[in-house]
Amino acid sequence: MYSTTDSQQTHILSLLKSNFGYDEFLPNQEKIINSVLNQNDTIAIMPTGGGKSLCYQLPALAIEGTAIVISPLIALMKDQVDSLTANGISANVFNSSQPQEEQQEVLKDLKNGALKLLYVAPESLPLLNDMLSSIKISLFAVDEAHCISSWGHDFRPAYTRLKTLKQQFPEVPLIALTATADRPTQVDIATQLAIPNAKKFIASFDRPNLYIDVRPGQNRNKQIFNFLAKRGKQSGIIYCLSRKSTEKLAATLKAKGYKAEAYHAGLTPEERNNIQDNFLNDRSPIIVATIAFGMGIDKSNVRWVIHYNMPKNIEGYYQEIGRSGRDGLAAHTLLFYSFADVIMLRKFAEGTETEAYQLAKLERMQQFAEALSCRRKALLGYFGEHIIEDCGNCDICKTPPKYFDGTLIAQKICSAVARLREQEAMGMVLDVLRGAQNAQVYDKGYQNIKTFGVAKDIAWRDLQQYTIQLLNQGILQIHFHENGRLLLTPLAKQVLFEGKQVQLANVVKEVEKVKAEKTT
Ligand code: ADP
Ligand code: ZN
């Protein structure tokens, strides 16, 4: 058993160098690795490209036995195994699509302790059950752990089987990794995996090299041609909502002489592999894809990402733009949004089991698209990271709207949220601020609280827009799993108690102005 000593540090640094060829750790990697080596259950939340794999691969080398890695995508597992093998580390995959002989081979190696890491699809895990209890397991790694949460945006039913891992193997440390988890999803991961005492590490989600640009979706094709005309042979991804639109847009781009390919789940695996290969090798630098594309793609020189349609939530959006600029060099991300997208996305959500939740996330995405303050602040605030300074690298920072001193309004809104004990969603908060005389208000006795009616001089629509601006500035947050009630963030406490100044924009005017400017 390890304790975090100098010799442990020296040991993991030498493993880092000798097995992976790196001289130093990326942020949080070392702490996470030490947590696992000290046999803690661990939750690692890191942005795409943050270096999650190393967080279990290195401990797998340092601890006796085989690490069992549960990963959702077979293609992704193969890539990982190939690169491990290239580094001289014995690793393999086990899944149901393998030929029988290959499976037998893997099982033999597993039994003989010849593997340092075994990647398993969650669906195939039950097939290994007997074997696992008879070998030495160093650790369990659950990659893309948000797939276990029915609250998350990529729920995979087979992940729920992982609930029993901890019961079955209480002594084996379990590390869960994900790039996309809001606070409640993080809590859900711990609950679902039965690791209530897990040590949690949250790396910064900031990707300062990504320029964040959002525009109304009028004349999208024309805007895209202008965009591409300045970007030569740079590699980029265009995300569309439907298969059909990927094909249509790819054809349009090809007709204009661009090397662009459509990619979606309707293609055969061979076709998809080919397209992916051509993209990775820059033979076809532009890919027009549905969100089926990208998970686990490790291409460092993607210089831009365009969302032809608005994504259904901020998690997906941030993950997708995060596929650009992984080399740390400047990259441009461009989101188009239109009301037509919102309507289509609403239709997708309707009738699903988690309809209300999905609609709330969609609405938040739309609010982000219409933000009038630093985009990065809004995104990071959404993930619970509160930055103070505007980023200087987004469309709003570049051409900010006209602001006025909205401190008093912000104080009123925050104070209402506080007086309602953070139990109410936006509609009720606004009613209370406006002093609405309706049954819902009276049923709860809210006409008696101190902030009742303090903002009755502001029109409902304006007040709503100011509240959305506070969400985008990371001062308020929505609890998506509990009726969308509004929560105060640490920044709200600064507004209420430390005299923090808040700038607001006169939304209706500004939104119209921005729309007019950007589409011309
Ligand atoms: P994630 O799974 O978090 O998206 P990866 O594990 O794929 O990230 O790592 C992203 C990239 O960073 C990979 O190319 C990986 O080889 C590289 N990387 C990981 N750790 C380090 C390190 N300590 N130093 C330099 N590069 C690293
Ligand atoms: Zn900014």
Entry keywords:
single chain; 520 residues; alpha/beta; seven-stranded parallel beta sheet; six-stranded parallel beta sheet; 17 strands; globular; binds adenosine-5'-diphosphate; binds zinc ion
What can you tell me about this protein's structure?
By secondary structure, the protein is an alpha/beta fold. The protein is built from 22 helices and 17 strands. The strands form 4 sheets. The chain has a 7-stranded parallel beta sheet with strand order 3-4-2-5-6-1-7, sandwiched between helices. Strands 8-13-12-9-11-10 form a 6-stranded parallel beta sheet. It has a two-stranded antiparallel sheet with strand order 14-17. β3 (91-94), α5 and β4 form a beta-alpha-beta unit. The chain is globular, with a radius of gyration of 25 Å. The structure holds adenosine-5'-diphosphate and zinc ion. Zinc ion (ZN) binds at residues 374-376, 390-391, 393-394, 396-397.
SSE map:
Elements: H1 6-20, H2 29-37, E1 42-45, H3 52-62, E2 66-70, H4 74-86, E3 91-94, H5 100-111, E4 117-120, H6 129-133, E5 137-142, H7 165-168, E6 174-178, H8 183-192, E7 199-202, E8 210-216, H9 220-229, E9 235-239, H10 243-255, E10 260-263, H11 269-280, E11 286-289, E12 302-307, H12 314-321, E13 331-337, H13 339-349, H14 355-369, H15 375-382, H16 395-398, E14 403-405, H17 407-419, H18 426-434, H19 439-443, H20 460-472, E15 476-479, E16 485-488, H21 490-497, E17 503-505, H22 507-519
Parallel strand pairs: 1-6, 1-7, 2-4, 2-5, 3-4, 5-6, 8-13, 9-11, 9-12, 10-11, 12-13
Antiparallel strand pairs: 14-17, 15-16
Helix pairs in contact: 1-3, 2-3, 13-14, 17-18, 17-21, 18-20
The structure holds adenosine-5'-diphosphate and zinc ion.
GO cellular component, one term: cytoplasm
GO biological process, one term: DNA recombination
Domain Helicase C-terminal: 220-373
